[in-house]
Amino acid sequence: MKQQFDLQNFLPFRLNRLASEMSAGLSSVYREKFGIEITEWRVIATLAHEGETTAQAIVASTRTHKSTISRAVTKLIGMGWVERSGPSQDGREKSFKLTSLGSQRMGEILPLVRAYEREVLKALGADGDGCLKTISLLEKVIFK
Amino acid sequence: MKQQFDLQNFLPFRLNRLASEMSAGLSSVYREKFGIEITEWRVIATLAHEGETTAQAIVASTRTHKSTISRAVTKLIGMGWVERSGPSQDGREKSFKLTSLGSQRMGEILPLVRAYEREVLKALGADGDGCLKTISLLEKVIFK
DNA sequence: CACTAATAGTTGCAGTTGCAACTAAATCAA
DNA sequence: TTGATTTAGTTGCAACTGCAACTATTAGTG
Q1: A56: which nucleotide lies closest, measuring CA to C1'?
Q2: Could you report the per-residue pLDDT of A33-89, keeping only the tens digit for each?
Q3: Do B41 and B30 meet the contact criterion of CB atoms below 8 Å apart?
Q4: Does the C-beta of B91 come within 7 A of strand C?
Q5: Helix, coil or strand: residue A54
Q6: Domains of chain A: residue spans and CATH
Q7: Which residues 6+ apart lie within 8 Å of B131 measured at CB?
Q8: pLDDT class for A3, splitting at 50, 70, 90?
């Protein structure tokens, strides 16, 4: 008894499948050569952009659970890519920044990651603009 | 030392964040009321559409690892939503189908899930077509 | 000041996932 | 037929994640 529903044309499924595949493609770029996972990548990307940053700010920027961020930061500190920076006024919060090793690694990863994105955008060609516009629209709808 | 990289405008990140949020919104629809997770949802959606189906076909349709599908099917059988169907010519493969209970539950879930999708598409308004077109394009690029 | 509530971050625990190794069955080659 | 290869599905294991509970610190109230 077939019901009228086609998962293959279902928007949330298609979007999720697409994002998973893209993330998988991208993460293979930094996983193999640098031994980090997607959460670590997002943490160092945030630190590279923001400079000295609290864990809370990383949580907000990456939309990732604070326990996940906590563990990623711990791992990155263990790798020597990240260090705690001086205590802030608020004794509860901790600030972090990239070490020089972390900056160096980020400098190595960035071109690879950018090349990946460029490749996708290039394949989209003239439709790239429409794609970004669509995503902006969806963000407004979903992050209500 | 700030580097020139903005995660917030990075295509794979934005797409992934969007898809996660959408999936989370959707899954709250069936998780609470029906006690299933996203993998189970995809399995029953595939079975509802395809009828009698092998595990392998579900793997292909959902793009999910075979071990994950194996466990989801086991769980669904335990819930009485899915049953094994008669042996096929190939003794390695196993075919499954929805039970009448499974069909009934699917009939209850479908309107909720469709309503969610409709809500998103409605919010997109006239841009809905462009959105679907963009996703099709990205699929061609990513699933090379 | 004392007491309560809120916030930042960590950790134990349980659930989920992917990988690799495994079993069972089919296919292929000689 | 026999033996090697491939395919379908299952399971043990290790890694990752989210939740809830916890500590520590700050903010708010009287």
Answers
A1: C8
A2: 999 999 999 999 999 999 999 999 999 999 999 999 999 999 999 999 999 998 888
A3: yes
A4: yes
A5: strand
A6: 24-142 (1.10.10.10)
A7: A134, A137, A138, B124
A8: low
